[in-house]
Design brief:
The protein has helices at residues 9-27, 36-48, 60-70, 87-95, 140-150, 202-211, 234-244, 247-265, 297-305, 336-342, 356-371, and strands spanning 3-4, 53-57, 78-82, 99-103, 125-128, 153-157, 165-166, 169-170, 177-181, 195-199, 216-218, 221-222, 283-284, 290-293, 309-310, 345-348. By secondary structure, it is α/β, with parallel strands linked by helices. Strands 2-10-9-6-5-3-4 form a seven-stranded mixed beta sheet, sandwiched between helices. It binds pyridoxal-5'-phosphate. One of its GO terms (molecular function) is pyridoxal phosphate binding.
């Protein structure tokens, strides 16, 4: 079988009885939408974060979009974020009518360069949207200081960083609100789509509950527009409840895979060689993906195909260079570090149930390919 960066089947084999029990519980419960499993998951996900509130939604993109709306962001407002992210971060902003404003990232950790943020602020700026990319927290202290000084909201994009920590604090607890995705590949993944917004602000949570439920505050009565139908499915909620109890194990498992890459590939590093990802001081990485760098990235990926290894690039095109975002007016050269990284990065297989033999097969193939490059 082809080796890929992600595969849920080994996990399903291990957890099958629990997952199928979750499905059966919901089907037999008599309530298929916004029932006990959604309520239970929301309470447990909020408690995991030590946060007051959690509203679950249908996916991570809508978690970001509805959270922006709940924060009062709309047409004409500017939201500062990065181009070096999954496109849904940016689509969530544009779908509210707001304008994404991109700042470049740091070469060392792929994360927002907090030193560039203040220069991007205009009178229209309403929020900062840091992305804890690949599973590592952004430096929050400088962002919080800037937000306080300029009266901006902070929405954390935690879609890749469930269970990651920053100086001991969980990501998702450091801004006004935080959006999560439970897309199957994520660190906490459902067996389908899912998302959630965590906050400690009751008013934001109340808005979230109305926004995901047609803009209604009671059945059939709309109190605000736009209203959406953006509910988390009851089956996915019950599966996520089961898996939430194992989230810390998943993060530990991903860290074990990362340590093995470091042990077995660490000697190849240096200028012009393979560069492994760095974890900043004070951070606990959750390794949503394990992203390495090499100037000959495309040749490496091509060569690995002959070993039946198919790797991913997260992400090959920075958002500001995509034709769909051309109207934002950035173009090539606008964000040099982001653009340079996009040409060199690729992801090695990463998931907690990746077995050592399969990981070694990738490591050995990669070592062979690098010697003949
Ligand atoms: C996955 C992801 C999203 C979108 O989540 P979906 O559940 O796929 O809609 C948003 N932001 C980032 C950084 C992501 O990785």
């Amino acid at each position: 079988m082809t080796t890929r960066v992600w595969n849920y089947l080994p996990e399903y084999e291990k957890e099958k009885a629990d997952i199928l029990d979750a499905v059966e519980k919901v089907f037999g419960s008599g309530q298929l939408v916004l029932g006990e499993s959604v309520k239970g998951f929301e309470a447990e996900f909020a408690a995991y974060h030590g946060a007051g509130y959690c509203t679950s939604v249908d996916n991570g993109t809508n978690a970001l979009k509805l959270a922006l709306e709940a924060l009062g962001i709309g047409p004409g407002d500017e939201v500062i974020t990065v181009s070096n992210t999954a496109a849904p971060t940016v689509l969530a902003i544009t779908s509210t009518g707001a304008v994404p404003v991109f700042v470049d990232v740091r070469e060392a950790d792929f994360l927002i360069d907090t030193a560039l943020v203040e220069a991007a602020i205009t009178p229209r700026t309403k929020a900062l949207l840091p992305v804890h990319l690949y599973g590592q927290s952004v430096d929050m202290a400088p962002l919080k200081a800037i937000a306080a000084k300029h009266g901006l909201k902070i929405l954390e994009d935690c879609a890749q960083a469930h269970g990651a920590r920053h100086h001991g604090e969980l990501v998702g607890t450091m801004g006004d609100a935080a959006a999560f995705s439970f897309y199957p590949t994520k660190v906490l993944g459902a067996y389908g789509d899912g998302g959630a917004v965590v906050t400690s602000d009751e008013a934001i949570d109340l808005s979230m509950r109305q926004l995901r439920y047609y803009g209604m505050d009671k059945v059939y009565y709309v109190v605000r527009t736009p209203g959406h139908n953006s509910r988390l499915d009851e089956v996915q909620a019950e599966i996520l409840r089961r898996k939430l109890g194992r989230l810390d194990e998943y993060v530990a498992g991903r860290n074990a895979v990362a340590r093995r890459y470091e042990e077995k590939l660490g000697d190849l590093t240096g200028p012009g060689a393979l560069r492994l990802p760095a974890t900043n001081e004070g951070n606990t990485h959750s390794y949503y993906v394990y992203v390495v760098r090499h100037p000959e990235r495309d040749r490496i990926i091509e060569a690995l195909k002959t070993y039946d290894i198919s790797l991913n690039i997260s992400y090959p095109w920075p958002c500001h260079t995509m034709s769909g975002f051309a109207y934002l007016g950035y173009g090539k050269g606008a964000l040099p570090v982001t653009e340079k990284l996009a040409g060199e990065i690729f992801s090695l297989p990463m998931y907690p149930s990746l077995d050592e033999a399969e990981q070694d097969r990738v490591i050995n193939a990669l070592r062979e390919v690098l010697t003949v490059l």
